[in-house]
Amino acid sequence: MGRLLICSPDYYGIEYEINPWMRVSNAADPQKARDQWVQLIRVLEEEVGAKLERLTPVPGLPDLVFTANAGVVYEGKAVPSRFRHPERQREEEHFERWFAEKGYQVITLEKECFFEGAGDLLGFPDTWFGGYRQRSDIRAYPQLSELFGKEILPLELVSGHFYHLDTCLCPLSGGELLYYPPAFDSYAQTTIAHRVEENRRLVVPQNEAERFACNAVCIDTHVVLPSGCPETMSMLQDRGYTPHPVELDQFLKAGGSAKCLTLALD
Ligand code: ARG
């Protein structure tokens, strides 16, 4: 349990603009980014007990650090991502090769169907949620549901700032859901409300959602999240979780944080 794929930020940077957080003029500081990433890895390994697998970084692929978008992995099968933006399509072959080399059964979606991996597909053991419209296509979910034998509830994302599902929703190990409702259309909000009891829905305030509080990694009772989210931390503590804040502002410049920098392999 708790195996994650990571990729070090050797070639990380803001080299193009494919979401509202990214501005080429707002460069990431390479040394700060490296220090923040190293601290994230230290917390995951030493405080949370995660087992880490590494993908070799590639020059010219500044977003390869965001391994949540490699694809989705479950029970020995891997479905690699098909990125919407050409800037990230160049990453596909590297993620795909890693899955194949590690012995996963690599299964590809039908052509011309965008799907951005665990950035848009996440869930509880019995119910999964699939974010669509900003990046992934809704058409991906019936295929994935059949492949994995899981119910997948598609949720429409309506805000450019919360363009992947993992930027605004985080299922926790005890069955609670951390999320930011305004990122979803009203039907998706109703779907969530039907599926998760009210006392298990932890609504993140706007200012912390904008710090990517929902972009958290939950392993057992540990939750690793970006720093600067005190209300989220206290909601988590009230439910018996141990929050581990990590400063990741250099990655927010690309529209990512703790969860985007990892891919769950179990
Ligand atoms: N710059 C990247 C993009 O826009 C960030 C990806 C963040 N990943 C995530 N799983 N939310 O695609």
| Cα-to-Cα separation, first versus last residue | 6 Å
| Count of alpha/pi helices | 8
The fold-level CATH name is L-arginine/glycine Amidinotransferase, Chain A
**Which outline best applies?**
globular
Strand content: 15-25%
Rg computed from alpha carbons, rounded to a whole number of angstroms: 17 Å
Please mark out the parts with pLDDT under 50 across 5 or more consecutive residues, or reply none: none
Bound molecules: arginine
What is the highest CATH level, the class?
Alpha Beta
**Annotated CATH architecture:** 5-stranded Propeller
**Mean pLDDT over all positions:** 97
**Percent in helix:** 25-40%
- Biggest beta-sheet profile: 3 strands, mixed
Keywords:
266 residues; alpha/beta; globular; binds arginine
Short description:
This protein is of the alpha/beta class and 266 residues long. The protein has 8 helices and 15 strands.
Set down the secondary structure blueprint:
Layout: E1 3-7, H1 30-47, E2 51-55, E3 71-74, E4 77-80, H2 86-89, H3 92-101, E5 105-106, E6 121-123, E7 127-132, H4 140-148, E8 151-156, E9 169-171, E10 177-179, H5 186-195, E11 201-203, H6 206-209, E12 217-219, E13 222-226, H7 230-238, E14 242-246, H8 249-252, E15 263-264
Parallel strand pairs: 1-2, 4-5, 7-8, 10-11, 13-14
Antiparallel strand pairs: 1-15, 3-4, 6-7, 9-10, 12-13
